[in-house]
């Protein structure tokens, strides 16, 4: 049943992918058929690039190599180009529709179509290149909170949170080392990695020996992580030995009491059953059985669904990622519709929520309309009188 559902989903995704590309192709063919040589070159180049994402995905899952990585990289960048070519062509179609009624456009010669096609390629390329530069520039966001709970010792605590790192074919050693430098510069008491540490299949991570720099993170109370949906996409049982080998403590529906009395809860990802995991995810209420609610409670939960559950359990700080805040505008409108909080800070009841836009990216290493981030929480604990 699970294989059938996957095949149906995969078939739908491929149908949408190739239908959208055929729309772009057919419109491009009108522009780049100025000579037989241009037409033939356009057809070959277009469908070669379109095929790269599918071929690259297959090769990265079956025989990861430098060649498969570059094929996948080209295909991943094409996803961003595809989106903005489609949106640009949609705008052109709306203009043409208006011209049908009001007749304000000049006659469309083949030379004009050719020049317009070249201008469109340049325009979209500028958007994607700027989005790639944006994706490489990580912002540090600081949030100061006062939590009315008791702790042992120091009443101040600095937590550094990073999510959606997506180590793999596209996010490699340089980005990993950059993340470690950012974290260590903050001199944190605690580091929390809130899911999607790896991009999916573990093969490119092992091939490039990624994760070694994560062991250089310096934190007084340790580094803890939770699984995200991408750990399950790649196979959680393959990912677990890797995380253990780089000394990452993975919390899967478990509770940990830190030296200062803060209670840290790491939730398993909600997609664990959909990805073939036998164990059901425990509810937050079940996990908090026996919790001392007079002491601070911090919850790590990759996908920010059902925020009211945390409010009902009087959680103090609830941290999530997953959304990337859409990653590519205008997809942020979709994440805003799906999630109560797509990105940023929200206080609801006594619970402080934060959903990170993430450090890395999925698919194209491009961000438009949002920024990658590492979040620093400066906590002050003040026991109520």
What features would you describe in this structure?
The strands form two sheets. The chain has a six-stranded mixed sheet with strand order 1-12-2-3-4-5. The longest helix has 37 residues, at 66-102. It has 385 residues and is of the alpha/beta class. It is elongated and about 80 Å long. Helix content is 44%, strand content 16%. The chain has two domains: 2-135, no CATH class; 139-381, 4-Layer Sandwich (Purple Acid Phosphatase, chain A, domain 2).
The proportion of strand residues reads 15-25%
* Cα-to-Cα separation, first versus last residue: 57 Å
* Number of strand segments: 12
Share of residues in helices: 40-55%
Q: Give the topology string: H per helix, E per strand.
A: HHHHEEHEHEHHEEEHEHEHEEE
CATH topology of the largest domain: Purple Acid Phosphatase, chain A, domain 2
Write the CATH architecture name of the largest domain.
4-Layer Sandwich
**Please, what is the average pLDDT?**
92
Question: Can you identify the CATH class of the largest domain?
Answer: Alpha Beta
Strand order of the largest sheet: 1-12-2-3-4-5
Count, helices: 11
Q: What is the CATH homology-level superfamily of the largest domain? A: Metallo-dependent phosphatases
Q: What structural class should be given to the helix and strand makeup?
A: alpha/beta
């Amino acid at each position: 049943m699970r294989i059938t559902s996957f095949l149906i989903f995969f078939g739908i995704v491929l149908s949408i992918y190739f239908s959208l590309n055929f729309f772009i192709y057919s419109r491009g063919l009108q522009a780049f058929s100025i000579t037989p040589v241009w037409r033939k070159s356009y057809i070959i180049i277009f469908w070669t690039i379109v095929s790269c994402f599918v071929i690259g995905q297959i090769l990265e899952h079956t025989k990861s190599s430098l060649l498969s990585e570059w094929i996948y990289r080209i295909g991943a960048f094409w996803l961003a180009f595809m989106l903005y070519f489609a949106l640009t062509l949609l705008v052109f179609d709306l203009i043409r529709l208006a011209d049908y009624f009001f007749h304000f456009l000049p006659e469309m010669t083949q030379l004009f179509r050719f020049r317009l096609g070249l201008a469109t390629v340049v325009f979209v390329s500028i958007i994607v290149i700027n989005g790639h530069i944006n994706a490489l520039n990580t912002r540090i966001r600081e949030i100061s909170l006062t939590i009315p709970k008791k702790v042992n010792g120091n009443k101040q605590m600095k937590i550094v949170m990073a999510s959606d790192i997506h180590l793999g074919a596209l996010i490699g050693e340089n980005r990993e080392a950059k993340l470690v430098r950012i974290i260590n510069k903050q001199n944190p008491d605690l580091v929390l990695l809130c899911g999607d540490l790896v991009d999916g299949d573990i093969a490119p991570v092992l091939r490039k020996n990624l994760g070694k720099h994560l062991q250089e993170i310096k934190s007084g109370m340790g580094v803890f992580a939770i699984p995200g949906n991408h750990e399950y996409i790649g196979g959680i049982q393959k990912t677990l030995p890797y995380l253990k080998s780089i000394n990452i403590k993975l919390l899967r529906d478990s509770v940990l009491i830190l030296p200062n009395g803060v209670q840290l809860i790491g939730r398993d990802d909600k997609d664990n059953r959909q990805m073939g995991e036998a164990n059901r995810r425990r509810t937050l209420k079940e996990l908090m059985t026996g919790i001392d609610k007079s002491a601070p409670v911090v919850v790590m939960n990759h996908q920010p669904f059902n925020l009211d559950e945390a409010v009902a359990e009087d959680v103090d700080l609830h941290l999530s990622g997953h959304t990337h805040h859409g990653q590519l505008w205008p997809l942020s409108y979709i994440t805003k519709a799906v999630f109560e909080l797509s990105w940023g800070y929200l206080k609801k009841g006594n619970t402080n929520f934060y959903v990170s836009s993430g450090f890395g990216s999925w698919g194209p290493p491009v961000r438009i309309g949002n920024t990658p981030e590492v979040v620093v929480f400066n906590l002050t604990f003040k026991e109520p009188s």
